[in-house]
Write a structure and sequence with these properties.
Elements: E1 2-8, H1 19-32, E2 36-42, H2 43-51, H3 53-61, H4 63-66, H5 70-73, H6 76-79, H7 87-93, H8 101-124, E3 132-136, H9 142-155, E4 160-164, H10 172-179, E5 185-187, H11 194-203, E6 216-217, H12 225-228, H13 246-254, H14 256-261, E7 268-270, E8 273-274, H15 277-281, E9 297-298, H16 301-312, E10 320-323, H17 332-335, E11 347-351, H18 358-366, E12 369-373, H19 381-387, H20 393-406, E13 409-410, E14 414-416, H21 423-432, E15 445-447, E16 450-451, H22 455-458, E17 467-469, H23 473-476, H24 481-487, E18 490-493, H25 498-519, E19 530-535, E20 539-544, E21 551-555, H26 557-565, H27 582-594, E22 598-601, E23 604-607
Parallel strand pairs: 1-2, 1-3, 3-4, 4-5, 7-10, 10-11, 11-12, 12-13, 14-15
Antiparallel strand pairs: 5-6, 8-9, 16-18, 17-18, 19-20, 20-21, 22-23
Helix pairs in contact: 2-3, 10-24, 18-20, 21-25
Amino acid sequence: MLRIALVNVPFASWDRPSFALSQLAGLLQREFGEHVVVDVHYLNQDVATELGALTYEAISLTHDHVDTGLGDWLFRSIAFPGAPDNIDEYFSRYYKGGRWAEFRDRIRRYRDTLPSFLSGLVDRYRLPDADIVGFSSMFAQHVSSMALAQLVKDRNPGTITLLGGANCEAPMGAVIAERVPQIDYVFSGPALETFPDFVRCVLEDKLEAADALPGIVSRRNCDQPQYRKAVGRNRDIDEVLRPEYDDFLSALDEHPELARTGNATPTLYFETSRGCWWGERSHCTFCGLNGQSMSYRSMRADLAIEQFNWLFEFAPRFTSLSCTDNILPRSYAKDVFPQLTPPAGVSIFYEVKLPVSRRDLTCLAQGGVTVVQPGIEALATSTLKLMGKGTTSFQNLQFLKTCLDLGIDPQWNLLIGFPNEDPATLEQYEKDIPKLVHLRPPYDVFMVRFDRFSPYYVKREALGLDLHPMDYYPLIYPFPPEALADLAYFFADHSLGTYMLNALEWHDRLRARVAAWRGAWPEGAGSPELRLLGSARDGWRILDSRWGPAKVESIDQETCRLLRRLGSPARPDQLVDDFGGQAALDRMVTWLDERQMLFEESGRLLSLVLTEGEDVEAETADETATDIARPLLPVLNTTVGVSRGGA
């Protein structure tokens, strides 16, 4: 019998299972039965308990820490025991000044105790006794995986150590195979085929055959292009692989203080599609989430319904469900969600592609989808074209209005600093944001970042981008520059371009605007409103509480009709004949504009007033302006907001 230990390491979110490891555990038990024993160990929860839930959540999720590489750097001395200590160099680059003094001291103390603490966890979970120890690495899980593998090897050199996950896709995984001796095999790309094949090699005592499997990289084959560049095959999306969540549930029971003291809500993952149907047609210029696997495939509707009904059985303990999909399957609003009856309180998260009709959003909401990541990213059509989004600012605002009406929480970020971005856009944001405070605010304002596999990275030379790994990489990995160039996922442009200078000039001012916007949405309190009230019989009124105590202003029937018409964008000259001539139209438009109830772009107007049950005709997606324009000057750097992605 083969004992396999799969380890979820920091800084994976403590409140969520590892979908990749849970899937693999279920798959191995199904395929090998009594020949294997598979356990998933949630060492990330032990570390979160030791650090404190709030500190752990901050390091794993907030940009103060994600953009410094702290989650990986903490484990450097254990993962690379021969590398010199660089704590002074690290803190001279990050966390400088009095603001961070207490945090620096706390991190120093924790770092000093980390080797003994991790050693205790290795012994507690008997990892050296396993035949195979596997780690999954996504975002800041890379160096902690290497550190734990080192501790396992110190105790039992015969244990086979594996590393896979998004951080290992070619060519990144080959660098690990070359330069991290405590990792025996690296899995590049999907492992749902290659990992069972590998286990079969071990069970049949033919381990040398694993070096011939495309998608598996080792020190023996990493110099051969056919293995160095390969990714593993995936299984059919309709081959439902039910994840094994028992170990996650047990881990939560063993760490009850996390749910009691943290801000996060325990959540279960699920999968209904892979790849991105929009990316197949127009790859968003900054997105690198799908790696080399953009090809889209979605789960059959009946299988998705069956999966949701299984997930609903976890209620009431788990009412938060989150997809790993990069995009909502287009047919699900019609074929899946109307068939669901979620238990009370269940909230489903999906990433969606705009535009989405009100009818479809209503179906999603009734089926339990109450949180979405809509990929808004900008409120300027010119910038959305630079991204290859195929949407307009009007569609984004229409979506935010509809979400508010239906009780859906849209989670989004405002990104700036795109190559060739019009600086006037940033100035317009500062003017427009105050009038939008009745809509759901973005999480924050971020500079766009250059990710491996994104069109910005792939076409960097044609775009004049001088991309180098983010500057925390050499502080974490004792590797030469050429190896870091293959290992890194996040890059910065070392050319100081006009567009980046513009973005840097506006960044703090826009962050202040967004902070005020978020401040107008306090937890548990009423949010600002801009809403049409009344009826034709009783008269029409506009309630406006965006900037203080609520004001109610009466309007006539024609102004009410104009507001409803401007639920879809229009140029004033298109409306003259329908609204009593130029003078009458001008009077109404001026009245609304003076009260900041209209959004204007390129001569077109959109009403910002919510009207009950507003049924607007969404614009057709702009699918023509999707090529990346060559920037006049390249961009400097750097970060995007929190994103969710599949394992």
